[in-house]
Amino acid sequence: MALKRVVVVGGGVIGTSVAVEAVRRGHAVVQLERDAEPRAASVRNFGLIWICGRAGGRELELALAGRRRWIELAGRARGIGLRTVGALVAARNGAELDVLAAAAERQDAAERQLALLTPDQARRIAPGLEKIVGALHSPLDAIVEPASALRALRDLAASSGRYRYLVEHTVVAADGAAVDHRGNRHDADLVVIGTGDFLELVPDAVVERARLTRRRLQMLETEPVAPALPVAVADGDALRYYPVFDVPERNSLPLPEPVVERLQAQLLIVPRADGRLTLGDTHVDDPAAALGSDEQADNYLLRRAGELLPTRQLRVRRRWTGSYLRRADGADPVLIERTPAGTLLVTAVGGMGMTAAPAIAAEALDSVGL
Ligand SMILES: Cc1cc2nc3c(=O)[nH]c(=O)nc-3n(C[C@H](O)[C@H](O)[C@H](O)COP(=O)(O)OP(=O)(O)OC[C@H]3O[C@@H](n4cnc5c(N)ncnc54)[C@H](O)[C@@H]3O)c2cc1C
């Protein structure tokens, strides 16, 4: 195939994965990012390659394909920091355990390699977990480091000699070329829009048809803990939220605490490579006036983590919120679409962008025969 010029708008994990994949296929890439460093969802997330919770079918396929590609990429770019350590979903009462048992019996449980564990078996994987009556083990879950993964991917692309990365370049118009806010025109055979939840370059008709919706999450990071947590851990509130737990037993879960109900709060803990913990999260669609974290939710998440982990004191190092774009029309978990102006939109990847980005990138380029 002849070499093509690809301009990628957006320096998040989607834009960067498209750039890496386009370079791998022999094309020349210019990537444009509006900030000095990407600071949106792709650096605010858990870095969890989350297979366990995905809906069966297309979502699971994308997640598994993303995992395979992350493993391949991590062999060439160490800064991705991939650890294939797995995850536990911990139950604190019989009703939660019933949901986990039903999830472990799903038709696709074998593909996910899910297994129901006793408390002692769970503690062999994550020593010291407290107040649990059992857990679901998801060994295919993995962790990457959001703080360094994008740079590692860019370095990989740059090693080809066919990649340029321009920061502080906001693209204001895109069709056959991308025009930045300085008035520079970046000519291309294909412009790819990977701008996350920034909608300026997404046609209104697409926003309306796909019902593109911004979802906001709040997160915390602790100082390193001892003993270190070896795997990612979710608690029973995850059962209310993730599609994999949509089993009849879910209807018998006890009523959630008010903050869980109000903000869809759910504890997920992901250990960083240096022993810190990333804790979250909440899930609210475009809440008005949600400029910062909700204190009740932070307190709830910290209390739950304190009950579950053997660590006696969790010291918070920083807090932040983040948002991602998802499509609420139910047509597909991601939006890969050619616009009338000829650009390729790759966006609205929801809560699985970090998991599936390398697979989404490959699918996007396949869709235009590149
Ligand atoms: C708190 C939180 C936790 C999450 N945890 C996980 C997780 O553990 N696992 C998982 O799989 N997913 C997770 N996600 C989802 C995942 O982070 C997102 O799906 C993914 O990062 C989206 O990537 P993106 O590249 O589409 O968007 P973004 O990361 O938002 O990147 C878009 C980039 O485009 C740039 N840009 C925008 N407009 C322009 C323009 N006009 N010109 C130039 N540049 C522009 C922006 O500055 C930005 O850097 C989480 C999300 C959040 C918010």
Short characterization:
With 370 residues, this protein is of the alpha+beta class. Helices cover 30% and strands 24% of the residues.
Task: Please characterize this protein's 3D structure.
The protein has helices at 13-24, 41-44, 58-76, 94-104, 109-112, 119-125, 146-158, 204-209, 258-263, 295-308, 353-367, and strands at 5-9, 28-32, 48-49, 87-91, 115-117, 134-138, 142-143, 163-166, 171-174, 177-180, 185-187, 190-193, 212-222, 232-234, 268-271, 277-280, 284-285, 316-327, 335-338, 344-347. With 370 residues, the protein is α+β, with helices and mostly antiparallel strands. Strands 4, 5, 6, 13, 14, 15, 16, 17 and 18 form a 9-stranded mixed sheet that branches. A 6-stranded mixed sheet has the order 8-2-1-12-20-19, with helices on one face. Helix 1 (13-24) links the parallel strand 1 (5-9) and strand 2. Helix 1 (13-24) packs across helix 11 (353-367). The protein is globular. The chain starts with a strand and ends with a helix. The mean pLDDT is 96. Bound molecules: flavin-adenine dinucleotide. Residues 9-15, 32-35, 38, 40-42, 44-48, 50, 170-171, 194-198, 200-201, 217, 219, 281, 322-324, 347, 349-355 line the site of flavin-adenine dinucleotide (FAD).
List keywords for this structure.
about 25% strand; alpha+beta; binds flavin-adenine dinucleotide; 20 strands; about 375 residues; 9-stranded mixed β-sheet; 6-stranded mixed β-sheet
What is the arithmetic mean of pLDDT?
A: 96
- The value of Rg in angstroms is 21 Å
What is the beta-strand fraction? 15-25%
Sheet of most strands: 9 strands, mixed
Number of discrete helical segments: 11
Uncertain segments of ≥5 residues (pLDDT<50)? none
Bound molecules: flavin-adenine dinucleotide
Structural class: alpha+beta
Helical amount among residues, as a percent range? 25-40%
- Measured between the Cα atoms of the first and last residue, the distance is 8 Å
Shape: globular
Number of extended strands = 20
